[in-house]
Structure formats: structure tokens, C-alpha cells
Amino acid sequence: MLYWLTNLSDGGDFFNLFRYITFRAGAAFFTSLVFGFLFGPPLINALRRIQGKGQPIRDDGPEGHLSKAGTPTMGGLLILASIFVSTLAWARLDNGYIWIVLMVTLGYGLIGFADDYAKVSKQTTAGVSGRMRMTLGLILAAIAGTLAAWMHPADLSGQLAMPIFKNVLLNLGILFVPFSMVVIVGAANAVNLTDGLDGLAIMPVMIAAGTLGAIAYIVGRVDFTDYLEVHYVPGTGEILVFTSALIGGGLGFLWYNAPPAAVFMGDTGSLALGGAIGAIAVCTKHEIVLAIVGGLFVVEAMSVIIQVVYFKQTGKRVFLMAPIHHHFEKKGWAESQIVIRFWIISLILALIGLATLKLR
């Protein structure tokens, strides 16, 4: 919205700063961060008052989690509000990629909100049915994938870019939309599975978002893409404003989610943020790199799949408990150890993902 202040510029004054994505990204970060700090306490108090008993805790989970009973959920509302206020204020609203990512974020946020509301109102760990969540998520992802394919340059539309290998494209054709659906839905659910300990999911999400934001900025500039010999996707640089707002909002939320958490993100936040990073990967043609940058989420999701499949086949378990962060809890790791070590792993994977831009 504030980008239009550039119309007041003569090319050499303060208003000219609004032309620069980096300036608006920095402003979006601080706007989102301040929003989170200001509105965090009243939102948490309102959630605690409305929800009463807070998020239901699984009886079959780690014993230490029973002490968290009464903690309110739906804290993702704080992150989403921060993101939307900041992005709408500082991003170019004539950019289609911004609207794709916002649509996915809002859509998955609403699905997560419905699930959280069902759990809290009925005081049960079973919310909206998995089939309903998956159906709605696939519809949203299909719309996003179709719009992204339509916006991509003709020589990239329907193509899958391969990292490391220079100028290598895999023509998916009509399969690109189903593939993008898998990426977005998979990312949303993987982040949702990771959100099981205080602060565990939000920091890796911010790391992944920051990495993808940098990639979006790079592939949206023809001078950078020529130098690095990666595919140029005009317009994606504006996504950096969104990811900066996400990081600011995430830090604001982490202030209250740090152990012991005053509020949980809930499916409202985890599904929305996971869907967002999936949509960014599709828009920037870096779907495979997402699997590297978000490798922690991949491992969390795979641990659940392996556990379920192996148990159905043999009646035995591979892990003491899935997702894998609960396995380490059962082995005696402190919650803070798991969280910080997983943060470190996420940072390493993000650096590896960024390195693929140069390894060609």
C-alpha cells in the first residue's frame, strides 16, 4: 500500500526509498515485530479467557506435557495478523505472487483455526476430520499451483527446475499443478507435525522463510540470475517483503512461545506457515530446494509415515514415539535440548540450500 508513496517522489528524496524492495522488507520486519509485541499480551489474555481449559493434551504423549494443560492455543492468529498488516502495508499490491502466498496463508490459517476451535470447544484432541482438512488443503493448493503456472514466464511454466544442474528443466506439463499441490500440502502438514514442543516449529519456519525470501529476491533480479546462472522469475523479489513480515511476526510470537510457553501456535499457525513456504517454493521454482531447506520438516513427516506403515505391517514401532522429536523426549532428552539442536540442524540445512544457487 505504502509503495504508492513513490508517486510523490522526484527521484532523489525520501519517498524514493519506497521503490526498493530491501527497504520495504526491512520496514515490514519491524512493523510485524512491533505488532507482535504490542498485541501479544491482549490476544493471549483473550484466548485464555475464551478457551478456559486451553488446548487439550494427549494422554498418551510424553509425561512432561501434562504440565502444559491450560495453555491457550490459536497463537498463530498473532503471527498471521502481523504478517497481513505488514505485507499489505509494505508490499506492492499489484504483484500477483504476493496474493498467491497471502491466499494460501489465509486459507490454511482458516483450516487450522477451524481445527483448533473444534478441539478447544469439545475439549478433545480430535478436531476437523483429516479427510476434510486434506480436501480443502488440496483445493487451495490446486488454485495456487494453477495461478503460479499462469504467472511464470512461458519458458518456465509447467517446468521443474533442478538445483545444481545448470539449465536443466524437467517438463511436467499438466502434472505441474498436481506436483505443486503435493509441495504445498506436504509443507503445511510437515510443519504441523513439527509443532509439538515450545518454540520447536517457529524458528525453523523463520529460517526457511528467510532462505526462501533471499532466493525469491535473487531469482527476481535478472542481474543476479545471470551471474548465478539460475532461472529468472520476474516479480518474485516482492516475496521478500512477505518473508520479512513472517520473520518479524515469528519473533514476536516466539517471545511468548519460549519455554514455558504462554501460548501455543496451534494448527492456525502451523498449517498457515507451512502452506506459505510451500507456496513460495512453487512461485520461485525452487520446490526441490525447499526439501533441503525444510529438511527438518521432511524428517518429522517421514518419521510419522515410517512409524505408521511399519506398525501396520509388523505390529512393532521403529521409534519410541512419532513424530521424531517425541522419540528423543522418550529417550530422556530435555525439551530445550531437542528444540535448540533442531534449530541448529535447520540453520545448517538452510545454508546448504542457499549453496545450491552457486553450485552449478
Task: Write out key terms for the chains shown.
360 residues; mainly alpha; two-stranded antiparallel sheet; 13 helices; 2 strands; globular
What does this structure look like?
This protein is mainly α and 360 residues long. The protein has one domain (18-355). The chain has helices spanning 21-51, 76-90, 96-122, 130-151, 176-194, 202-219, 222-228, 239-257, 266-284, 287-293, 295-314, 324-330, 335-355; strands at residues 159-161, 169-171. It has a two-stranded antiparallel ribbon with strand order 1-2. The relative contact order is 0.16.
Number of H- or I-type helical stretches: 13
From the N-terminal CA to the C-terminal CA, the straight-line distance is 38 Å
**Percent helix:** 55-70%
How are the strands of the largest sheet arranged? 1-2
Largest sheet: 2 strands, antiparallel
Topology pattern, helix = H, strand = E: HHHHEEHHHHHHHHH
**Poorly predicted ranges:** none
**What is the count of structural domains?**
1
* Count of individual beta strands: 2
What general form does the structure show?
A: globular
Q: What structural category characterises the helix and strand content?
A: mainly alpha
What is the radius of gyration? 20 Å
**Mean of residue pLDDT?**
90
Strand proportion, as a percent range, falls in: under 5%
